[in-house]
Input
Amino acid sequence: MSSTESNPIREAIAEAIDEHEIILFMKGTPEAPACGFSARTVAALQSVGARFAAVDVLPDPRIRQELSGISNWPTIPQLFVKGDLVGGCDIVMEMYESGELAPTLGLQAQGPPEPLQADSPSAAEGLQIENRLS
Amino acid sequence: MPSAEEIKSRIEAAIPGAHADVEDYTGGGDHFRATVTADAFVGRSRIDQHRLVYEVFGAEIGGAIHALSLKTETPAQTPTP
Output
């Protein structure tokens, strides 16, 4: 496939990254994460009070494939802030524990990190790439 | 299925000055956790440090290696015993 060919999935992903200041590509949804790494990343974001858009990569395997092509990052989840890849679960958790996460997201630091709770209320906006493709 | 030992030796062979500690944390041969220290990380962002390690395995990440959880450090960051 030539890189000049139009690629609606890649374009939809690039647009979504562009349009949302904080966007998380994950397995499942913030309410029902389908993978422990995605669940921990959502919990860290919610714990610092972040509002973020969330894209489930599972409905279409091409979403993950094209996303990794754009980001040069092989695993899910992937967190983007202002268009730049911040990292996956390991980096987000490291930043959460060191207190770097809130300022990176443009939020006020909230003191020392609290133990994460999986049932924090969601401030996430679900976003469905596959619905943009019809 | 790669072993923790194999992942360790591949990281250490591919990245100059790298030392890796790898554990298979489910025992299933597909979920690994690695702490990697390397001179090659100096001056790179955390995300580029992780990319260097992921690049060792290419498409195996997400394939045969379902998960490779990473922590990267430069030699100066590693506490000496």
Observations:
- Strands of chain A lie at 22-26, 52-56, 78-81, 84-87, 124-127.
- The helical segments of chain A are 8-19, 36-47, 61-71, 89-98, 101-104.
- The interface with chain B takes residues 37, 64, 72-75, 85-91, 94 of chain A (CB under 8 Å).
